[in-house]
Amino acid sequence: MQQIKHIAILGSTGSIGTQALEVIKTHPQLFKVKVLTAQSNVELLIQQALAFQPEQVVIGDETLFPQLKEALKHENMEVMAGADALCEVVTSSEIDVVLTALVGFAGLKPTIAAIKAGKDLALANKETLVVAGELVTELAKAHHVKILPVDSEHSAIFQCLVGEIAPIEKIYLTASGGPFRGKDIAFLSEVTHHQALKHPNWVMGAKITIDSASLMNKGLEVIEAKWLFNLNVDQIDVIVHPQSIIHSIVQFRDGSMKAQMGLPDMKLPIQYALSYPDRIENNFKRFNFLDYPSLTFEQADTQTFRNLALAFEALNKGGNMPCIINAANEVVVAEFLKERIGFLQMSEVIETCMTKLDFISHPGLDDYFESDRQTRIFAQELVTSI
Ligand code: NAD
Ligand code: MG
């Protein structure tokens, strides 16, 4: 009999978090939820806590603590609030895996706390690796912690590498191209957040959906891949594949290529990260070749979608530059969602931040927090001046 895995989910009310709970619910003999956390969706968090009976529940927004506490007062659970509580709950001795399904820079601190406590990570929160990939992967190595990718492209690469000992020559990250693939600058200057929120293949949280429309998501994933698989920038290529069936490709030094494919469904990479190294049965819909008589590929248009080029530039530059683009991007996406700036202005603000903020070639953890803070202030000023 397999041992049950004890899981903490940071961001359980989001797109990844709720899909992870679906996977866990189907396999109660394999997985047990110990910790659930959310930022502000207290109603859903309460429902999840009642259904999954974790030992600890955290709400990020402290004003919602009384509501959470009241609703769970008859349950045998510890109820907490605030960002610091996230760092506390991931260290519990019983947890085997921490699923980082929260969004943005906010994932950095609890991720570090989880690694220091020796917990394996099922990592969805790509922003953490974008900001501090070197620091986080070195720390994971030092603490013998596995980082199991949840992002579908990185899960694909990870799956292609199982059983391989030869080095990677190159990887191809596939990109759907998002809802605005093939559109020009004139079109993009007019698009609204409603249009940007309609992704052709995936249903995801708002921030990553906007990032997918602007190709920043692919840029962040290039940086994520660099750290997960210890690659140089020139070993990473992006190819647009609108059907989202091939989730990414590894090329080895003999020219052989391995791809991982399947229908676009995040439950599969989530499940693999939780069940690794095993594969477990499920009833997810299977791929049928005849439904997809042609799989197509094209070059990404980095002239029109500047964010992807900016992310490559940030990765080439290194230091705190990826932290700067991440912070600037978090600000502009939030502002675009509030209709305070246009789609193309997002890249303009990010680019200005890259040229104006202090560059640090060898940042430490405190530098990342300071760069993040300064960039947010500056980006916000730029948005206000538009
Ligand atoms: P989402 O917006 O749907 O959910 C985010 C979750 O994090 C929610 O539970 C929310 O309460 C919590 N949260 C938000 N801000 C927080 C904060 N400041 N502190 C603590 N918790 C906070 O997002 P999502 O689409 O599930 O994405 C989560 C992460 O997974 C992101 O990093 C995203 O890039 C990555 N990812 C998502 C998908 C997908 O299909 N949704 C695919 C690949 C990678
Ligand atoms: Mg992805």
What does this structure look like?
There is one protein chain. The protein is of the alpha/beta class. It has 3 domains: 5-149, Rossmann fold (3-Layer(aba) Sandwich); 165-263 and 286-307, no CATH class; 318-386, Rna Polymerase Sigma Factor, Chain: A. The protein has helices at 15-26, 42-52, 65-71, 83-89, 108-116, 126-142, 152-161, 185-188, 193-196, 206-214, 216-229, 267-275, 306-317, 321-337, 343-356, 365-385, and strands at 5-10, 31-38, 56-59, 78-81, 97-100, 120-123, 147-149, 168-175, 236-240, 246-252, 257-261. A 7-stranded parallel sheet has the order 4-3-2-1-5-6-7, with helices on both faces. A 4-stranded mixed sheet has the order 9-8-10-11, covered by helices on one side. Helix 10 (206-214) crosses helix 14, helix 14 (321-337) packs antiparallel against helix 15 and helix 15 (343-356) crosses helix 16 (365-385). It is globular. The model has no long low-confidence stretch (mean pLDDT 97).
Briefly characterize the structure:
The protein is an alpha/beta fold. The chain has helices at residues 15-26, 42-52, 65-71, 83-89, 108-116, 126-142, 152-161, 185-188, 193-196, 206-214, 216-229, 267-275, 306-317, 321-337, 343-356, 365-385, and strands spanning 5-10, 31-38, 56-59, 78-81, 97-100, 120-123, 147-149, 168-175, 236-240, 246-252, 257-261. The protein has three domains: 5-149, NAD(P)-binding Rossmann-like Domain (Rossmann fold, 3-Layer(aba) Sandwich); 165-263 and 286-307, no CATH class; 318-386, Orthogonal Bundle (Rna Polymerase Sigma Factor, Chain: A), CATH 1.10.1740.10.
